[in-house]
Amino acid sequence: MRSRQILCPTDFSDTASHALKYAIEMANLYHVGLRIVHVIEQPMGVDNYQILTVTPEELAQSMEDSAADNMKKLLTELKSELSVESVIRHGSAAEQILKEAEGSESGMIVIASHGRTGLSHFLHSNVAEAVANRAQCPVLVVK
To answer: Would you place residue 56 in the very low, low, confident or very high pLDDT band (cuts 50, 70, 90)?
Structure first.
């Protein structure tokens, strides 16, 4: 862990920004690099009920452009002398985060938890929980 980079997934939320601060602190402590990953999930819907004013390709491109803009903004706001890499993936958030951690041989994952409880917890997939349960490296879940 102490010689391998730290992976920090982001959805560009305030909670993810809070987790990023922990990731930066850990990376500085261990003198390792930081890798920031954002996963674009496909929008879900039933074809018969979707009303789209754009084609699926246009929607996907818009999501990609938005993610790239948010990532650029995030990287320019980082005030750190760390080695920072960023990547944008497509698919299931938990699956892609785990693949990125394995593929980049990350020493630790620092991930935000949105702290949902009750019915909201059951209605929304818990990415942080899935990553923490299945990751091969240590995971720090930040609330």
So the answer is: confident
- Residue 105 backbone class (left: φ over 0; alpha: ψ -120 to 50; beta: rest): left
The two beta strands, 84-90 and 108-112, are unpaired
Residues paired with residue 85 on neighbouring β-strands, in sequence order? 35
Instruction: Report the candidate in 74, 70, 69 with the shortest Cα–Cα distance to residue 24.
Output: 74
Q: Identify the CA nearest to 23 among candidates 67, 100, 68, 32.
A: 32
Per CATH, the number for 6-142 is 3.40.50.620
Check residue 143 and give its pLDDT: 87
> What phi and psi, each to the nearest 5 degrees, are found at residue 78?
-70, 125
In 16-83, where do the E strands start and end? 34-40
Please give the Cα distance from 13 to 11 (Å, whole number).
5
Q: Would you state the structure tokens that stand for residue 106, as one six-digit string?
A: 């990350």
Q: Which among 69, 67, 130, 126 has a CA at the least distance from the CA of 95?
A: 130
